[in-house]
Amino acid sequence: MARLSLNQRVQWLPVALTALCTAALALLLFSGVRLAARLQSASSALQLASSLTSQPQLLHSELTLIQRGLETQTYVGDSLRSLAAGRTASNRAYAHLASAMQDADLATRADTAALYAQARVHWQPLDTGLAKLEKTRSADLYADTAGGSTLTSAGTALKRAVDELLASQSRNTTSLAGELGDLAALLRAAVVRDGQSLRTLLLGGAALASLLLATMLYFAWRAGQSARAAGEAQRQIGNILGTVREGLFLIAPDGRIGGAHSDSLVALLRAPAPSGQTFEDLLRPLVDEKTLLAAGKFLGLLWKDKVNEELIESVNPLNQIEVTFRKSQGSAEQRFLSFSFRRARGEHATTDFVLGVVADVTERVLLQRELEQLRASNDSSSALLLQLLQTEPLQLQSFLNNVEVGVRRSNALLRSPGIGGAELQQKLQGVFREMHALKGEAAALGMDSFVERTHAVEELLAALRERASLAGDDFVPVVVKLDELLGHKQLIGAMQERVDHARSAAASADDIPPEKHGDTAVIATRAASVAPAARPAGLEQILQRLAREVGTPSGREARLVCEGLERIPGEYAATVRDICIQMVRNAIAHGIEEREVRAAAGKPPVGTIRVRFAEAGPQEYSLLVEDDGQGLDPAQIRDRALERGLLDEQQAAALNQTGAYRMIFQPGFSTATEVTEHAGRGVGLDIVNTTVRECGGRIGISTQPGKYTRFKMLLPRRDATDPAQSSAA
Amino acid sequence: MTLEAEVGVFVTGVLHYFGSTVQQAAQCGTPHLALGEHPEISDYTGVIQISGKRTGLVAFTAPKSMLSVMLMRMQETDMSHENLCDLVGEIANTLSGNARRDFGHLFQISVPAVVSGRGGTLDYPAHGRPIVIPIEWRNYHARLIVCLQ
């Protein structure tokens, strides 16, 4: 603030100095003008006094000439006229002298005033005498006689008057001449004095004018220097704003972007003219409403000076945002932008502007993600290896084969012709079923990496299912994920081969010295310790594991009671396994209640799921899956079908109990309120239904709300069924 | 940029070419993987090779009949082999331009090459699984093949 005041003073200084000098110069000039006028008057007075000084002597001479002329009877007319003219001139000169002395401020000075007064006193009788002479006509002075010219009475009277005047005014004339001489001397001194004053004044004025000129030149030079410095600074700022990669901009209190901003801002925000727009308008096309709202509140905090700036920055919602730019050709570009803000404080320590900086951090974010993926991949490699060692090789091989088959079946669905909306929906549901089945099996085996990947495909498909219309290219991300899933399967297959190789190497490595074992032997030793027996696990073990995997995270525990699973014929092994996986998962996710709920209902805290496979006469097998959970609630099913848009109001009203039970097999139906890895997609029972129907079988349900749910599936015996009939069914 | 976004750029590029240059929109079929064997190519194929962040190729392959009709719609009367090659090369060039614009320095993109004849082969990366995107236009079937590793 002090520096700003100094700057202001420096800016005002030349103006004040110039004004002061100008005022002083004006004063000097005014005084000079007055002095010059006085000098002019004094000079006039001096001139008049000087001319008057000789006047008495001249008049005296003229009088003498008249006297002599009268004595010799010569012509005196010229002298009389000269006397009259001299008197008139003297009177005018006295009047002018008085006026000039008045103008020159000399009339009030005692010495000059006294001398002038005395001169007038001495002039007055002379003037009176001369006035009398003027009445005489020159033609009347002489009379011609025989003896020559003689004075007439007028001539005699004139001569007497002249003689008297010469006699009476002789001393007076001398005094008058002396007084006028003294007066002239005083006036000369006054003129000299005024002249000197004027010269001094002019010198002072010249000095002041020079000072003023110098001052103006100095400040003009300073101003030039400042302008050059400002121009250079402006050029440098222009260079910075034109070169810097970040988008720099200022936000005014009304929320508008200032006129000066870096060139990069235009490219970063794809905004051709950001100046004058509000920051909110700039953000709107880039972010969702929620982020926009948060950004508005955040900027509001920045204007509150009392709020700590560092604290505000920590809640910056625009610290890293993902934005999508639509291009003219319809394609989209994803970028990551990072905004940061600082207050720009003004003279009164209040926030004048908010400085915004935006940077494109896409490369950094992608690199960071790649690093995280790499790190996760490294971490998961160990987990994968451990998983492989804990999984029985035959079971794993079977699962990997199923993955291959599932992906190929999904791919075949996608490859099949048809780009209409209904066809695309069918393809979507088909791929969904394949992925859900694979996910279920992966969860049963504890293959988390496959669960994650199949879940990711399901996420994509679920998003597509919600769309009003579908196009073929919407499936591009799905295909890419399928490719990744297949790649992961190949990676796991290759790892399994190495583990198998290591196991067999370890089995025959007893004679090899320990130092020559190498990594392979170490892996084999670990494998032996983790999975001592490569005995294939039965379906019961898979289901037990699945029950734990699904139940533990959701707080639902269930005891699995299996019966007759060892009697499943080979041709149904895979089918029954797939069905059981879905049914057991479904029973835990939707049937078995949480411990507290069960306890409150007077049930044992741990639920029970029974899975029983048996022959049902000569034509069929029966597969029964029963849980002692909450049972099916037709009203809840109806409400959920309404919510999911599977039924309209009319259909829902007409839905009876049987219809409600059928509804649970519909693709996309689920009673779960949120989507998890194990429930919520509405695919599990769809898979069961499709699988059973493909086998030519049937499904029956019996349930009692709060007590139990029992699914009974009847599967035709292959050796007893005509395949043609089966497929027709 | 993710692989799906990169594939999306090429798909959008081809569809835009039909919409703007040919002035009749094409439709995209459901993409799928070419598993086991390389996808068959049609009469004329424009290919660009990509290296850098990813390695592989992008190809647009179409039958002669389809390319001829496209030329007719573009007010061309010359249906010679050279002109058909030029057209498929131009489509590949458009894809190349899109890739340069959207991927920037992340990729190096070759000059488009044209393969004529159904028996030809493309230079796929060793372990890549090509993604095949069917392009349907006036009952003709072309394919966009993207194989990036």
| Number of separate helices of chain B | 3
Number of domains of chain B: 1
Low-confidence runs of chain B (pLDDT<50, min 5 residues)? none
Our count of domains of chain A comes out at 4
Task: Describe it.
The complex is a heterodimer of chains A (729) and B (149). With 729 residues, chain A is α+β, with helices and mostly antiparallel strands. Chain A folds into 4 domains: 10-221; 247-360, Beta-Lactamase, CATH 3.30.450; 368-530, HPT domain (Four Helix Bundle (Hemerythrin (Met), subunit A)); 539-728, Histidine kinase-like ATPase, C-terminal domain (Heat Shock Protein 90). Chain A has helices at 2-71, 77-103, 110-133, 153-243, 264-269, 279-283, 289-302, 309-314, 362-390, 393-415, 421-445, 448-465, 476-507, 518-530, 539-554, 570-591, 595-600, 634-643, 649-654, 657-663, 684-694, 723-728, and strands at 142-145, 148-151, 247-251, 321-326, 332-345, 351-360, 558-563, 607-616, 620-627, 698-704, 708-716. In chain A, the strands form 3 sheets. A 5-stranded mixed β-sheet of chain A has the order 7-8-9-11-10, with helices on one face. The longest helix of chain A is centred in the first third of the chain and has 91 residues, at 153-243. Chain B has helices spanning 3-22, 64-73, 81-103, and strands at residues 27-28, 32-33, 44-52, 56-62, 107-109, 113-116, 131-137, 140-148. Chain B has one domain: CheC-like (Chemotaxis protein chec, 3-Layer(aba) Sandwich), CATH 3.40.1550.10. In chain B, α1 (3-22) crosses α3 (81-103). In chain B, a hairpin with a 2-residue loop joins β7 (131-137) and β8. Chain B starts with a helix and ends with a strand. The mean pLDDT of chain B is 88. The chains are: A alpha+beta (729), B alpha+beta (149). At the A-B interface, β5, α10 and α13 of A face α1, β1, β2 and β7 of B.
